[in-house]
Each structure stands twice: as structure tokens, then as C-alpha cells.
Write a structure and sequence with these properties.
Radius of gyration of chain A: 14 Å
Strand content of chain A: 25-35%
Structural class of chain A: mainly beta
Shape of chain A: globular
CATH class of chain A: Alpha Beta
Oligomer: heterotrimer
Strand content of chain C: 25-35%
CATH architecture of chain A: Roll
Low-confidence stretches of chain A: none
Number of strands of chain C: 9
Largest sheet of chain C: 7 strands, antiparallel
Chains: A mainly beta (about 100), B alpha/beta (about 350), C mainly beta (about 160)
Number of helices of chain A: 1
Mean pLDDT of chain A: 96
Strand order of the largest sheet of chain C: 1-4-5-8-7-6-9
Radius of gyration of chain C: 15 Å
Helix content of chain A: under 10%
Number of strands of chain A: 10
Distance between the termini of chain C: 30 Å
Largest sheet of chain A: 5 strands, mixed
Largest interface: B-C, 45 and 42 residues
CATH superfamily of chain A: 2Fe-2S iron-sulphur cluster binding domain, sarcosine oxidase, alpha subunit, N-terminal domain
Helix content of chain C: 10-25%
Order of helices and strands of chain A: EEEEHEEEEEE
């Protein structure tokens, strides 16, 4: 969910939108925001499943240190989505385990 | 040919920015390095008004303090390297970094490590479920990215971070169901708790989380009362419907580079863990390497600003940009303000710990 | 329970506080109530007061002292307190009602005339009130001050509200 209005930060100014793909589905993202934020805004919370036990993981530290938010991005695994900005046409996939190099 | 500078600062949060300003004002060639795409550290997440005095920008919001510090460094022409991660220190004066996936090195006569802190984790059954995250993470999402990761939140930890982030969550439109604290008393300032309780958010002590439950994400939290030895009191379990569980259970200094450089450390629980030993002017056991801010011990933002200023003056002085008498005068002024900041009952523990940490140079 | 147990100031803690005006002063007219009872290094309220009615001395850690004779009830101190711990109380508003002004940094902002559920320091509803004034000038830097009319006897109890 996006915070459209805020008592201190004011109204959200959306300068431009870009289309990105998450597991094949097109979603709208704000240019410049992180991949993780675009996902959280669209209501998504599972970003990957662990290698050994297949358990779901999502955002934890949001600052690029814990590796819980890793996803496949444009064919590259283990991308820290919480610090990586979205780009038009980006293809993001829920990572299973260690992921695989597709590019 | 490796680039050589007089002073390199790793970390452009309040401590790093304040140091850059003091040193650059004195004429030092400063390079400020930060792994993020924007300087400011945690300041831009602090939408609330700061405490302290005029010199600490009291009554002004953290976000504005960040902007002022940034502007001052820009006006002084401080060179800033962003999206740049310093991954090693060699020979005590060479910084190895990565920028845009390319490696580089920088030699500096003086280095200030102002790398801040990490949030502590709190493992419990279900803590890996999506929807369990650090309080700092929540702050980043709601105040920088402006997205809400949940609508019904449970805050674990009633230190200043937990209490402030709970308030930020309310401002972002979430409902904070409860703030719980394992200790029998609230660790943060009473005023931060009162601004929650008067609007119906209970703050409960001697309580902790037993487990988180849910299918692929947090749906419920089970709380339990604990005694003074942190043992669960049977039969006191309580279930809450929440979709966001925030962990605010302390910060620890992030000092990887100081370890790598070979600085001497001391363990001080009151300051958050292992801290690099430093003298009263912020120089570590390695000559030429300084530390300031949370990486020198977890305290307030105002302390980070003052320690940064102190390190900036000390470095400028050691490089010959400020003459002895003036340097001593400025250092004394800053030390006096630091002393005031650490005076009250909340600062007592930090003050004593900092005294034990002090490195005395021969 | 004391403040550090549940985040709620008790009456006896307030009575001891140098920032809380006496009953005598409260009966005279609008006056600031500074509910700051822990020693923390902070003093912006001192400079915010145009009449020098707040003193924090000799150390910035000392509790704010309200010099009730100098307080005119102007409310300048309310938005400046980073702890949102200062309120304005007017027990003389009318026969049936008292006024209390509260710093409020949430959306939506209430409007004059709105009916609200009034809450005490614990967040417990203690009745109903009405919004009398909403002050949100630029100089308050996004800390609007909301004035509520509450039933007589409750101005020293009410510190929060919910828009109905």
C-alpha cells in the first residue's frame, strides 16, 4: 500500500511511472523506487523461498545487509531488491533457493 | 596512480557529515564516502522533531537537519562519493572500495570511520515469516519509500527506536495494536511512550513474543508475560491479529572496517557491543584512524553530531590546519556539550561506559 | 504505575512536577501544562516562550519549571516540544466546559465543530468533546494544535481524542 498523504511528509508526488514484471505479471512502479518497495506497494510479501526448507522470506532489514529480500532480476539471482532501483521493463522473479543464472 | 587525499570519511550520516563540515571549514581536503545513493544516514527517516539544544538543532525535524548538513557540505565543496562501498583498509591508510561494480583504492592521511549501526535480530519461532522485520526497516519503507508493509502492527521493544517507530507507523496510517517490552520498565523516554498511550496504544512491560504464526506471512502473534529472569509465566499467552511485527531490540555498532584495520576493541554492553577504543578526541588505537557516531558506541543523533565535529576538529588540527590554542578551545567546547548531553539518568550508563572505553595515549 | 512502567504519567507524578501549574493558577485562566517529568537534555520550550515563563536551569537536563505568574496561556510552547508533552488548559472557558489544547500530528486533521471521543492519558475514553479550534500555521512546522471543549473537570485529564 502506498502512503499517499502524510502529516509530515505531505502528499506523495509521483513524477513518473514505469512498468515492471513480477513473475510475469505487469505492475506499475514509481521511477526511482526500490524493487522491494514496488512489491510492498502492490501487496506482495513473499520474495523468495529458502534453499533447504522452501520457506518464504521477504523484507527484513530494508537496508541491503541481511539478504532476506533476494530475488531474480533480469535473469540474475541474488539481487538485493531493497536497495536496487526499478527500471522500465525489469523482469523480477520469486527466487527459489539459490536461483539460477539465466542471462 | 592511486588518488591521495588528506582526509577520507567512511559514512555520510550525522557524524560523518559533521566531521566533513568542521574539517572542510578549516581547509582540509575531505572526501566523504557512502554506500547509499544519498548521504544522511538515518537522518532522513527521522520525521520527528529532535531534542537537545539550539546547537543540536532541537525542535527541528531529523529530515531538515539532514538537509542542512548536506547543504553545508555542498557549499563547502566537500567531495562526496556515493554508491561506494569501502570493503577494506590496507596498510592503515589505503581504502579499497567498489563503485558501480568497479574496484578502486584511495590513500588518505587521516581516516574517519563513521559507519553507524546495525539492528539486532530477535529470533523466535516464526520470525522468518514475511511481515517480521526490523523497526529500522519499517522506518525506511514508510518514511523514505512511502510504502506501508502492514496495517496492524506489533512493536517489540520500548526503547526510543521502538517507541518512535510505533509513532511513525501511526502517522503512516497503520494501527499499532501494542508495544511490548521484555524488561520491567520502558527503556525509552517517557514522553515517547505517552504520545502513544494517550491515543490508545498500550505499552506493556515484562512481556515478549512467544511466536509468530501465519501462512506465508505474519497473521498472528502470540505474546507471553515473563518474570524478571526472562522466564515465561505459564498460562499468560495472548494472541493478537497482526500483519506486521517490528523488532526494536537494540542496535550494535557496525565496525567491520575498524576490525579489519586492526583497531583495539572493548566490549561494553551499555554502548551496544564491541566498540573501538578511542581517545578523548576520537582517535582509535591506530594513529590516523578515528571513529565517531554510533560506530563509536550507540547513543543519540546529537551525540553523533558532536563526536563528528570533535573528530573533524581533531583531524584538521593534526594536519596543521588549526593552531594549537584554537584547536584546544574548540575541542573543549564540544566536549562540554557532549558532557551535558550525557548528564541525565538516561545518559549515565553511556557516560560511564565511554569513560571505561577511553584510550589514554602516552 | 509510574511513567516508566506503562508510559502513562500518574497524578502523583504530575503533582510533583515543576512544569504543572497550581490549582490556584488553573482557576485564573488559560495556562500551559508541561508534562515533562524525566531528566533529558532538551530545552527548546525555554526560547519558544515569549514571556520567559519557562526555565530550565542550570543544566539542560533539568526539568522545565513553569513560572505560572508569567504564563499568559498563549500556547507558543505547545508545537515546539519534541516530546509533544506541553498542553494548554483553560478551566475558565464556561460554566459547563473547559478547554484543552493538544499537539496533533496525524491525518485526517479534525475540523472546527467536529464531535470527538475524548481520551485520558491512558487512552481510555472519558466522554465526548467538540473541536473548538485547529491551528496549523507554517511556523508550527507541521505540529497542528487542536483545541477541544470538554466537560467541566476534565481538562486536566483529557490528552487525546478520536474523531467520531
Amino acid at each position: 500500500m502506498r502512503i499517499i498523504d502524510h502529516p509530515i511528509l505531505g502528499k506523495l508526488e509521483i513524477k513518473s511511472l514505469v512498468e515492471i514484471f513480477v513473475d510475469g505479471e505487469a505492475i506499475e512502479a514509481i521511477e526511482g523506487e526500490t524493487i522491494a518497495s514496488a512489491l510492498v506497494a502492490s501487496g506482495r510479501y513473499v520474495f523468495r523461498y529458502t534453499e533447504k526448507t522452501g520457506e518464504p522470506r521477504g523484507v527484513f532489514c530494508a537496508i541491503g545487509r541481511c539478504t532476506d529480500c533476494l530475488m531474480m532480476v533480469d535473469g540474475i539471482p541474488n539481487v538485493r531488491t531493497c536497495i536496487t532501483p526499478v527500471k522500465k521493463g525489469m523482469k523480477i522473479e520469486t527466487q527459489k533457493g539459490l536461483g539460477e543464472w539465466k542471462s | 596512480m592511486m588518488k591521495e587525499v588528506e582526509m577520507a570519511i567512511v559514512g555520510a550520516g550525522p557524524a560523518g557529515l559533521s566531521a566533513a563540515i568542521e574539517a572542510a571549514k578549516a581547509g582540509v581536503h575531505v572526501v566523504l564516502i557512502d554506500e547509499n545513493k544519498r548521504p544522511g544516514g538515518q537522518l532522513f527517516k527521522q520525521t520527528h522533531k529532535f531534542f537537545g539544544t539550539m546547537e543540536h538543532y532541537a525542535g527541528i525535524r531529523g529530515i531538515q537537519i539532514g538537509e542542512r548538513l548536506l547543504k553545508e557540505t555542498e557549499d563547502l565543496g566537500v567531495e562526496v562519493l556515493l554508491n561506494t562501498t569501502v570493503w577494506g583498509i590496507f596498510n592503515k591508510d589505503v581504502l579499497a572500495f567498489i563503485q558501480d561494480e568497479k574496484g578502486g583504492q584511495l590513500k588518505a592521511k587521516k581516516i574517519l570511520l563513521a559507519t553507524g549501526a546495525n539492528e539486532n535480530p530477535l529470533p523466535f519461532p516464526g520470525w522468518t515469516l514475511p511481515g517480521v522485520m526490523g523497526a529500522g526497516a519499517v522506518q525506511t519503507l514508510i518514511n523514505i519509500q512511502r510504502v506501508l508493509p502492514g496495517r496492524r502492527a506489533l512493536m517489540i521493544g520500548a526503547g526510543n527506536v521502538g517507541l518512535i517507530v510505533a509513532y511513525h507507523l501511526m502517522q503512516a496510517g497503520a494501527e499499532v495494536i501494542k508495544v511490548v517490552e521484555g524488561k520491567p520498565t520502558i527503556g525509552g523516554w517517557g514522553v515517547h511512550a505517552s504520545k502513544l498511550t494517550r491515543f490508545g496504544v498500550p505499552v506493556e512491560t515484562s512481556k515478549t513474543i512467544k511466536r509468530a504464526e501465519g501462512n506465508e506471512k505474519v497473521e498472528r502473534a502470540v505474546l507471553v508475560k515473563i518474570d524478571k529472569d526472562w522466564n515465561e509465566i505459564p498460562g499468560t499467552e495472548e494472541e493478537l491479529n497482526v500483519d506486521l511485527i517490528c523488532l526494536a531490540v537494540g542496535l550494535g555498532p557496525m565496525d567491520d572496517l575498524a576490525w579489519i584495520a586492526g583497531c583495539k576493541f572493548e566490549y561494553l554492553e551499555e554502548l551496544g557491543g564491541y566498540i573501538p577504543k578511542h581517545d578523548q578526541y576520537m582517535e582509535t588505537s591506530i594513529e590516523g584512524i578515528y571513529t565517531a557516531g554510533d560506530s563509536a558506541g550507540i547513543e543519540e543523533a546529537s551525540v553523533a553530531i558532536e563526536e563528528g565535529r570533535l573528530a573533524g576538529v581533531a583531524i584538521a588540527h593534526s594536519l596543521g590546519y588549526i593552531e594549537d590554542r584554537e584547536a584546544l578551545k574548540r575541542k573543549k567546547e564540544i566536549l562540554k556539550r557532549l558532557h551535558e548531553l550525557r548528564k541525565g539518568p538516561f545518559g549515565e550508563a553511556s557516560k560511564k561506559a565511554k569513560e571505561r572505553l577511553l584510550l589514554r595515549r602516552k | 504505575m509510574p511513567l516508566e512502567r506503562d508510559g502513562v504519567i500518574e497524578s502523583k507524578e504530575l503533582e510533583k512536577s515543576p512544569g504543572v501549574p497550581s490549582q490556584k493558577r488553573l482557576r485564573k485562566g488559560p495556562v500551559a501544562v508541561i508534562e515533562c517529568i524525566q531528566e533529558i537534555p532538551c530545552d527548546p520550550c525555554v526560547l519558544a516562550c515569549p514571556n520567559g515563563a519557562i526555565k530550565i536551569t542550570p543544566s539542560i537536563n533539568d526539568l522545565p519549571l513553569l513560572i505560572e505568574g508569567r504564563c499568559t496561556g498563549c500556547g507558543s510552547c505547545i508545537p515546539i516540544c519534541p516530546g509533544l508533552a506541553i498542553f494548554l488548559v483553560d478551566e475558565t472557558f464556561s460554566d459547563k466546559e473547559e478547554l484543552v489544547s493538544i499537539p496533533y500530528e496525524f491525518l485526517p486533521l479534525p475540523k472546527k465543530g467536529d464531535r470527538v471521543e475524548i481520551l485520558n492519558r491512558r487512552g481510555t475514553p472519558v466522554g465526548e468533546g467538540k473541536i473548538v479550534r485547529v491551528l496549523n500555521p507554517k511556523k508550527y512546522d507541521r505540529t497542528p494544535v487542536i483545541t477541544l471543549a470538554v466537560p467541566k473537570g476534565l481538562a486536566m485529564e483529557v490528552r487525546g481524542f478520536r474523531i467520531l
